[in-house]
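Box 3.1 — From sequence to structure: ATP-binding cassette domain-containing protein
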Amino acid sequence: MIEFQDVCKTFGNTRVLDGLSFTVPRGSIVSLVGPNGSGKSTLLRILLNLEKATSGEAIIGGKPYAEFSKDSEVGVSLDTMIPHPSRRAIDQLCWIAAAKGIDKQSCVEKLEYVGLAGAERRRIKAYSLGMKQRLRIASALLGDPDVLVLDEPVNGLDPEGIRWLRDFLTKFSSEGKTILITSHLMNELEQLATDFVFLHKGKIVEQVSRDQLKEQYLSLEQAYFTLNHAEN
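Predicted structure (token representation):
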């Protein structure tokens, strides 16, 4: 469903992505794993046409993200998506929905779905970090997408919110839908993802399924530190 083909990116004389190629199959939850500066955010920005690759391409369902319709076949939640703090949550969602041709009722339903019913008219500046995270996820779900691209979606969520997100994403993928995710919370990723792509200094250093991970390493955390130590 998502495919990266020999993606390279340079900023000046610095190469931040060096020939990355991998796929995210339909119905899978693929996690990008790597330290800050490994290229995860840049790779997502290239996929979403927020950054242009120096060479190579990133496509979803055989075409660039920019060619998708307003109907939101792809839902996106980036850690850098910061709504205006004085806006009400329902107004924020309606503003996004209007650009996609989605009605207000869908906004109300998505806010309820992510656990923000009763807080939809509060100013976003009064929201906790976890509530802001739920709002970003609600925005990503507008239009009932088949693909989700989620950057650090667990940040700020309390244990109840983390369990809700885990259950939702597992159900989402079980319906044949596709998720590409990043997170620094190893325990959650290990329970959630079906496949892992490890990045270090802009290169793929390992790509394994959950079963392969269990065969080769004691845990996702051990794999993370082992691979990063080997590449330093």
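Summary of the box: The longest helix spans residues 159-174.
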